[in-house]
Amino acid sequence: MGRSVLVTGGSRGIGLAIARSFEAAGDRVAVTYRSSGRPEGLFAVQADVTKPEDVEAAFAAVESEHGAVEVLVANAGITRDTLLLRMSDDDWDAVIDTNLTGAYRVAKRAARGMLRAHNGRMIFLASVVGLSGSAGQANYAASKAGLVGFARSVAREFGSRGITANVVAPGFVDTELTAVLSAERRAEILSQVPLRRYATPDEIAGVVRFLASDDASYITGAVIPVDGGLGMGH
Fold first, then answer.
1. pLDDT tens string 185-216
2. Based on the number of CB atoms within 10 Å of its own CB, is 206 exposed (0-12), middle (13-18) or buried (19 or more)?
3. If DSSP codes are grouped into helix, strand and coil, which group holds residue 149?
4. DSSP type of residue 175
5. What is the pLDDT of residues 133-192, one digit of tens each?
6. Secondary structure (3-state) at 74
7. CA–CA gap between residue 152 and residue 147 (Å, rounded)
8. What is the dihedral of CA 70, 35, 208, 28, to 10 degrees?
9. CATH code, domain carrying 155
10. Closest by alpha carbon to 169, among 212, 132, 197?
11. Is residue 135 part of a domain?
């Protein structure tokens, strides 16, 4: 039957690639989406991770359909990029509440079933930006750096109960979000990447699925960069 897997923000891009990867491996996969539409062929629940009632309703629906969540992939995230002196409180609050507090909400809810089962995998999608920083992304970088401390605290708190918590830190990934960048900006980014290319969403998905596998049962509290070498040294 496979495991019950929940991917937040799983309707497109990296999140959808992760969901499809688990589905292809035979797992029972559910995704949450907010406004981008329901992905075809997956059990999907519309939910905003900034709303506690949406998180609770999403978990109730997933548990009814697939059973308690055994693998949680906290992927939901947004950006509101601007220079610090132009950043509004709303820009800051929206990114932190979605990217960091949203991950806290879903991890806390998933932990109920995992603690009862004495088993579970939590994987948090951060970013190379959370390790190296990025001008114009103070809110985003802070939210992603926060995930590292959060995941490591969860790893220490729940490790004795058979629950692992790890972070995947992608670099630049070829998605619809990066496709809108100008050719000049893409060239500038690639010049900083030792491998001289973007990652594919499937490459991120493969690392996430590895961390959820039996082969990674002794890995917890780790930050795994998938960035073509962009963030090495951080």
1. 888 889 999 999 999 999 999 999 999 999 99
2. middle
3. helix
4. S
5. 999 999 999 999 999 999 999 999 999 999 999 999 999 999 877 777 788 888 888 999
6. strand
7. 8
8. 40
9. 3.40.50.720
10. 132
11. yes
Is residue 140 flagged as an active site residue?
A: yes
DSSP for 94-140, written as a single string: HHHIIIIIHHHHHHHHHHHHHHHHT-EEEEEE--THHHH--TT-HHH
190 part of a folded domain: no
Residue 233 has which token pair? 């040294």
Range of the domain at 48: 4-173+201-223
State the catalytic residue, choosing from 33, 104, 140, 218: 140
For residue 187, is it within any domain? no
Mean model confidence pLDDT for the chain: 95
Strand order in the sheet with 223-226: 43-46, 28-33, 4-7, 71-74, 120-125, 163-170, 223-226
Convert the pLDDT of each residue in 65-118 to its tens digit. Answer: 999 999 999 999 999 999 999 999 999 999 999 999 999 999 999 999 999 999
Domain total of the chain: 1
Instruction: Give the DSSP H/E element, type plus range, for residue 88.
Output: none
Task: Give the count of beta carbons closer than 10 Å to the beta carbon of residue 188.
Answer: 11
- Does residue 231 belong to any structural domain of this protein? no
DSSP-H helix ranges across the chain: 13-24, 52-66, 89-96, 102-117, 129-132, 138-158, 176-179, 183-190, 201-211
Q: Which residues pair with 170 in a beta bridge?
A: 226
